[in-house]
Design goal:
The protein is α+β, with helices and mostly antiparallel strands and 97 residues long. The chain has one domain: BolA-like (GMP Synthetase, Chain A, domain 3, 2-Layer Sandwich). 44% of the residues lie in helices and 21% in strands. The chain has 5 helices and 3 strands. Strands 1-2-3 form a 3-stranded mixed beta sheet. A hairpin with a 6-residue loop joins strand 1 and strand 2. It starts with a helix and ends with a helix. Pfam families: BolA.
Length: 97
């Protein structure tokens, strides 16, 4: 029995690579982070930095991501997202250093 099967009652087949591929295809990100928080493919936290988010408010960006990744999200227990424009990401990185 795999480690994932032991730790999770219902492991999914959604891998980090699956999530990265979907994000890349839909958003052409300049930066992305995909973290499998539960190690079983049931809880993901993503950061997406893309020009697609230019001029959009936070709620609009979340809606765009939720709609674009609806198939993947429907297979998850939990999904958390942060979406930025390249300029917003640069500013955030500068503040962190």
């Amino acid at each position: 029995m795999s480690k994932c099967a032991k730790e999770c009652a219902e492991p999914t087949e959604l891998t980090q690579d699956d999530m990265r591929t979907a994000i890349t295809e839909k958003f052409n990100p300049v930066h992305m982070e995909v973290d499998d928080l539960g190690t079983c493919g049931t809880s993901y936290q993503v950061i997406i930095v893309s020009d697609i988010f230019e001029g959009k408010k936070t709620l609009e960006k979340h809606k765009i991501v939720n709609e674009a990744l609806a198939e993947q999200i429907s297979r998850l227990h939990a999904f958390s997202q942060k979406s930025y424009t390249p300029a917003q990401w640069e500013k955030k990185q500068a503040q962190a250093s």
